[in-house]
Amino acid sequence: MSNWEMVGQEWAVEMLQQHIRNAQVRHAYLFCGPQGVGRRTLALHFAQALNCPNPVEPGIPCGTCRACSQIAAMQQADLHVVQAEIEGGVLKVENIRDLQHDLSLTPFESKYRIALLLRFEEANESTQNALLKTLEEPNSRVIILVTAENTEKLLPTIVSRCEVLRLRPVAPGLLSEALQKQGVESGQADLLAHVSGGRPGAALHMVREPQLLEERRQCLQDLLDLEASPLRDRFAYADRITRYKDGAREETKEDLRAQLETWLSFWRDVLLVATDAQVPLSNPDYTEQVHVMAGKLGVRGAKGKVMAHQQALDRLYFANLRLLMEIVLF
Ligand SMILES: [Zn+2]
Fold first, then answer.
1. Which CATH superfamily is domain 10-166 in?
2. Which has the minimum average pLDDT: 122-131, 191-200, 282-291, 314-323?
3. Could you tell me the distance, in angstroms and rounded to a whole number, from the CA of residue 144 to the centre of ligand 1?
4. First vs last Cα of the chain: how many Å apart?
5. What value, to the nearest 5°, has the Cα angle with vertex 118 and ends 115 and 119?
6. d(CA 49, ligand 1 centre) in Å
7. CA 129 vs CA 55, 97, 137, 264: distances in Å
8. What's the gap between Cα 39 and its chain centre?
9. Could you read off the pLDDT of 203-233 as tens digits, one per residue?
10. What distance in Å separates the CA atoms of residue 63 and residue 45, rounded to the nearest whole number?
11. Ligand 1 ion: Cβ-proximal residues, 5 Å cutoff
12. What is the Cα Rg of the chain in Å?
């Protein structure tokens, strides 16, 4: 467990272990990076290292005791997990108020009370201000761990009070190797390492749910078909995929988000090829189609596609879904 069984991010593990070894643990940490890169996993391993009653050595949790298992499952008495009700939702100020009450108590059975605030970019301004108060009043038995996509949607005053760790995607070769160690066949491991964009969590998700790869294939096929279709068919498609039954709006949004992310990864590949960037593609099994599209659209066209998809993803939770998809498709 000396590397906390993380794939990549050795520098971050090393730094956190050093903080424990040197008794320099900070009051608050912010783990930034794309979803699935390992922010939460790293934070949980850190929580184990902080609160394991029988560490192998300082900074290295046993990984098997009751506390370690409960922390891994995010079900431990001194670990307080706070997150918006649904992914892409809004984290409300009441959640922080409850947390503040819990943190004011002495730890139940561990060295520290640990707050784990997930996807904190989903916190609205009053929620962020509420957390700021907690950050401004350090308590030696409380540690705050925050995860977020990036620092841009957070108050600068929050960021400045945290030790910030920026996690980057893992090199495809390294990730493929790790997947193979878990029993994934080498060709499949290579594909997943690329398709996941070097995000171990995303790759493992696809290992556990193999139909996701089939959905991705269908999704990319739709994209290629639509590119060759007349406007009328694209309208019909936008109408079909954005129609939902009562109460199913959230699910529809989640499906659309996954679809837009897959399409975005394809257009990013097209832009990479159009600009002649020498980096691995996210969709190596579509290399031929990516090259054809890059030749057709050029840098400007590819950039337009990338921007349109990014904007649609940013607006997904507020906009009229059908209108949004129509904009993407035209
Ligand atoms: Zn333990």
1. P-loop containing nucleotide triphosphate hydrolases (3.40.50.300)
2. 314-323
3. 20
4. 51
5. 150
6. 8
7. 36, 11, 13, 33
8. 7
9. 999 999 999 999 999 999 999 999 999 999 9
10. 9
11. 52, 61-62, 65, 68
12. 22
Evaluate if pTM is beyond 0.70: yes
Determine the distance separating the centroid of ligand 1 and the alpha carbon of 50, expressed in angstroms: 10
Q: Which letter, b or e, does each residue of 305-317 get, where b requires 16 or more Cβ atoms within 10 Å of its Cβ?
A: bbebbeebbeebe
Task: State the DSSP code for 153.
Answer: T
The Å distance, Cα 29 to ligand 1 centre, comes to 21
Tokens of 69: 């298992």
Query: Cα separation of 213 and 199, whole Å?
Result: 15
- The string of pLDDT tens digits covering residues 89-122 is 899 999 999 999 999 999 999 999 999 999 999 9
How many A from CA of 45 to the centre of ligand 1? Answer: 10
Q: What is the pLDDT of residue 216?
A: 95
Residue listed under structure tokens 């069984």: 5
Tens of pLDDT, residue by residue over 254-292, are 889 889 999 999 999 999 999 999 888 999 999 999 999
104-122: b (≥16 Cβ within 10 Å) or e: eeeeeebebbbbbbbbbbb
Contact 48, 72 (CB under 8 A): yes
